[in-house]
UniProtKB/TrEMBL annotation, chains A, B:
Required cofactor names: pyridoxal 5'-phosphate
GO molecular function: transaminase activity
Highest taxon of source: Bacteria
Keywords attached to this entry: Aminotransferase, Pyridoxal phosphate, Transferase
Family annotation (InterPro entries): Aminotrans_3, Aminotrans_3_PPA_site, PyrdxlP-dep_Trfase, PyrdxlP-dep_Trfase_major, PyrdxlP-dep_Trfase_small
Database matches in CDD domains: OAT_like (cd00610)
Name recorded for this polypeptide: Aminotransferase class III-fold pyridoxal phosphate-dependent enzyme
Family label: Belongs to the class-III pyridoxal-phosphate-dependent aminotransferase family.
């Protein structure tokens, strides 16, 4: 049942399939394939030419309006005027790196760090989540003296060489390196009592650590996306990470919380996904929604970890923490606060999950509904066997697209709908989404 | 004589030195050190708080205007209105990744690729030069089946784990990994005849390849910044790279041209530094000036290299090739063309070098003047022994700063002034710079 596809290929356009009728679209696809070659990934059975976007909506070249229930980078809403104005204002004033001082940059760093537990008082600004995780892994290695990592089976932590090593979902062939161990996704099972999932996940992590030790590989850490996005979205019960983190720390390793996907309010419970688990990470990494589309990322940790690494290596990031990034990042925090987006994510996310759960009575294809805030996983299963049904998930995704609703897939089988709209998603938007899922499944 | 400092620490503020009198500046420095910790790098004996910039000028918080003879990211001029307008327009219209199609993105890819030799027909868009080189190294490894790399002794190719391995200048302690071999910078010597430097550099590369072979390490490639910036700027004679590239290819390796610093017109001879050497690279990487400050980078290569890598691994870059990056990149190409910046770099660069050479008659501290276009290296030496004098270079850099002129240091000894102003630098700007160097050295 394990798909041989990279998770990056889920919901991907397959050029070998039927031709594209629309000449303009066919021409764009041909140009894309000509210049991007084998690295090109386009969404949907028939790709979409997007021309503009606003709030929770995107518009294609024919003027069709799509409800965006997928894109987590424009997290406070596509082209949010407050963020756009901040970018434009700073770009026309000063766009420069951190080797000069600038109040906008220092103020953003102060403000961002204030949202973390006190001991996490240092921030390294980068350009992407990949750069953040790449540095975090090195910080963990130098602090622990180890090299071994434990990750989930369908983890994705970035596109650099180092982060690809800890991203089993990026491997199309071959094996992950010997210093990396995988554990199953933290999925609930029928009959689970309180604490069972947490104990099981910790036992899996413990076994992975034991196997590393047996091979003479000293552990450096456990890195998890705190909402397990690419595994299929696993959020509950809050706190289930704690025993696994205790196990890795007991073995001398560190806990890296990858907040690239859950961070900046999406889980509806504070800015950070890790806070739902009531254990402070050693290192936190950020990316995607940090600048609402402006390329920026960051690593937050304790000062001694950066000091330790910096004894051996210089680290400088030309674009990381540039003045425009800082202005964009501050504007994103402004909007999250002024529009109450964390509370909105909690409220609308709960309504969305309730709506999807209510559909299960009518549609046997609906399996589990999971998530926190506006990060929701919806399993599509075979109505009889209840086994994962990636083909049906794909049909639903493309059916939703024809109804002008955008969503994607996740999980080891590709049968989980990855539902993560902009955080300004309203109750009406959620109701419309549920209605469309209902209609496509009923068709 | 080899400095133990990382090249990243050249011209760096040393907090242990004399206190900062200005209270506002002292406060900013304290905040920076508190949140950025050991990773913080600030320029100058006393850092500068910058507040705005325009064209070739930057302005500090007290209203002082500085002539920028250093910053190569805002390459078409600080806050160029055409680039700023393109960023603002696209950011308010659509800021999204490449899994949807968009004409702005496809048109930029077509236009950029048209500037390369025909066989280099694929482009992977990234966010930074580091991400570009990180991918390029993997492409070279998968295409060659090797892992060994040859780099220069003071090379810098990025801040990811993989690119740090091939960046000897980032190592403060310890040794570069066993699969990496270094060769001396391609410096001319007194008495060199035509072809001597090229033969010597190729012989060094050949010896490094031989040493790799002896240890059973199959070569993957030679990666060089085509103007050898961090080595101290080595541009001449044009074509000197050709025999070294032939040697690496004969050994089964590839040639990666790192255009992060010389690219986009700076050398005054076309868009790319490699073209001065009349040998087509297997892979070209781009970064810094690509978006005039907007974080973007790219890898250009032959389709089969991407195809080969993509058989084993998925690669997707969330921010790479986003619509705003494409708009920024296209605007940069517009300005390079409409303002004739390549010809300007050639003309003003030649005047600048001539002016500096003419100073040598009056100032024995001036050693060699090297470069191409607006990328110039100026060696500062002991007047008697002619040995590298990093302390005098540092004094000159800080003296120039007091005269409101910004410049930095490079090279294994830190005695080379790294001169790389925005490409709109005028003959008057060049004359002013020469005049200030004259004044500081005469003081």
């Amino acid at each position: 049942m394990k798909t041989t596809k990279s998770i990056l290929a889920l919901n991907a356009f397959e050029p070998g399939a039927a031709g594209i009728e629309d000449a303009r679209l066919a021409g764009l696809v041909a140009r894309r394939r000509s210049h991007a070659g084998a690295a090109s990934v386009l969404f949907y059975e028939e790709p979409i030419e997007m021309v503009r976007a606003s709030g929770v909506f995107m518009f294609d070249a024919k003027g069709n309006r799509y409800l965006d229930v997928y894109n987590n980078v424009p997290s406070v809403g596509h082209c949010h005027p407050h963020v756009v104005a901040a970018i434009a204002r700073q770009a026309e004033t000063l766009a420069i790196h951190t080797r000069y001082l600038n109040e906008t940059v220092e103020a953003y760093a102060d403000r961002l760090l204030a949202s973390f537990p006190g001991e996490l008082s240092n921030l390294v600004m980068t350009c992407t989540g990949s750069e953040s995780n790449d540095l975090a892994v090195r910080l963990a290695c130098s602090a622990s003296g180890g090299t071994g990592f434990v990750v989930t089976e369908t983890a994705y932590h970035g596109n650099t060489a180092l982060t690809t090593e800890i991203s089993p979902s990026s491997f199309k062939t071959g094996h992950i390196p010997p210093h990396v161990r995988t554990v199953p996704m933290p999925a609930g099972r029928p009959g689970d009592g309180p604490g069972d999932l947490a104990r099981r996940f910790a036992a899996d992590v413990g076994a992975a650590l034991g196997d590393l030790a047996e091979k003479g590989i000293r552990p450096a850490g456990l890195i998890v996306d705190t909402i397990f996005s690419s595994d299929g979205v696993f959020a509950d019960p809050p706190g289930f990470l704690e025993p696994a983190v205790a196990a890795v720390r007991a073995a001398g390793g560190l806990y890296i919380a990858d907040e690239v996907q859950p961070g900046f309010g999406r889980t509806g419970a504070g800015l950070w996904g890790f806070s739902r688990h009531e254990v402070t990470p050693d290192i936190v990494t950020m990316g995607k929604p940090m600048g609402n589309g402006y390329p920026m990322g960051g690593v937050v940790t304790r000062p001694e970890l950066i000091e330790r690494y910096s004894k051996n290596f210089g680290y400088f990031n030309t674009f990381g923490g540039n003045t425009v990034a800082a202005a964009a990042g501050a504007a994103v925090l402004d909007v999250i606060e002024s529009e109450g987006l964390i509370a909105n994510a909690a409220r609308v996310g709960a309504e969305l999950r309730a709506g999807l759960v209510s559909l299960a009575a009518r549609h046997a294809a609906i399996g589990a509904v999971r998530g926190a805030g506006l990060f929701v996983g919806l399993d599509i299963v075979d109505p009889e066997s209840r086994a994962p049904d990636p083909a049906a998930a794909s049909a639903l995704i493309n059916g939703l697209k024809r109804r002008r609703v955008l969503v994607g897939a996740a999980g080891p089988f590709g049968h989980t709908l990855k539902i993560r709209p902009p955080l300004c998603f309203s109750a009406d938007d959620a109701a419309l989404f549920v209605e469309c899922v209902d209609a496509v499944l009923g068709a």
